[in-house]
Amino acid sequence: MPRSEIPPSEIRPSPIAGTWYPGSAEALARMVDGFLARVPEQAGLGRPLALIAPHAGYVYSGQVAAYAYSLIRGQHHERVVVLSPCHAPYPGRFLTTAKRYYGTPLGPVEVDRTTLEQLADHIPLKGLEYDEEHSLEIQLPFLQRTLGDFLLVPIMLRDQSWEDCQLLAEALDAVLGRERPLLVASSDLCHDYDYERVRATDAATLEALVQGDAQAFWQVAWRRHGACGYGPITTALLVAKRWGGQQVVLLHATNSGDVTGQRGGYVVGYAAAAIV
Length: 276
Known about the structure:
Number of domains: 1
Shape: globular
Radius of gyration: 17 Å
Structural class: alpha/beta
CATH class: Alpha Beta
Largest sheet: 9 strands, mixed
CATH architecture: 3-Layer(aba) Sandwich
Distance between the termini: 34 Å
Number of strands: 12
Mean pLDDT: 96
CATH superfamily: LigB-like
């Protein structure tokens, strides 16, 4: 359907455009393209099964996210599954939008309603008429600038339990295992008021991540509060293993204290990784 013919009622409007990232198409495209242009060449990694990217405001974590998205620049992916946590107390274990499109300044992103309906046969998936979840939406401009058009399968995990990660992984494999579309797991790392504690916690969390063992990662991240999106990452690890994933590659890691130079006060860790 041409963009001009999409009824506004079918679009989930962005609650973060103009704050977490630029509100105009021109400024947003320029910022994302600038981040991507500053990523050094990452040769020899092949086509990733899954990406792990942070979800803070672009001035804080956009450059880190670009390390993940640079791996898919110019590729074609008909479908992308974006997994995120849910920071607001919406009811339900697995959540998605009830709308047909996500709106960003770069244009509407079509939601794959057919795949969501198939997944709903395997998990209790609840559609929200309105949500303010930033961690899923903030991945979309990077996908729009690297891939162009794609179908979006958006899933938010409210309860990031080990059991729910397993259930979602089984559902994704049952519905999409033959196609094996790109997965994106949205997560920041440690949040704390102590810069050195953030660094130490992030180091332990990332060490567990690169080992590639989903349950071991889940235990470390849950116990140490090492990643706010530990459920999406765990699910991506579980699915990628079923789909032939052999290695987790850490691409870049930093924290807001290093980005801004202000190491006192609240500090958040960020990392970009790929499962190949």
